[in-house]
Amino acid sequence: MNRTYVITGAGSGISLATKKKLELLGNRVIRIDLKNSDVFADLNEKHGRETAIAKALELAAENIDVVIANAGSALPVA
Q: Could you tell me the CA-to-CA distances from 76 to 3, 33, 41, 45, 69 in Å, in that order?
């Protein structure tokens, strides 16, 4: 396939599994997460989102074909 994917929340779970499968199919994957990723960013913060976009574009070099927005956060439970 040879596409470039960006996956948020890809440090673990289903996003990490998706990353592995996409790479097995010959794609390039750029992971964005708080840890265990290519781009470290807190997407809950504006600065984190700006940083994530800039670094992902830098790593992609030419283009990004697909974005899988799978990062999530939970609110505190009272």
A: 37, 20, 20, 17, 22
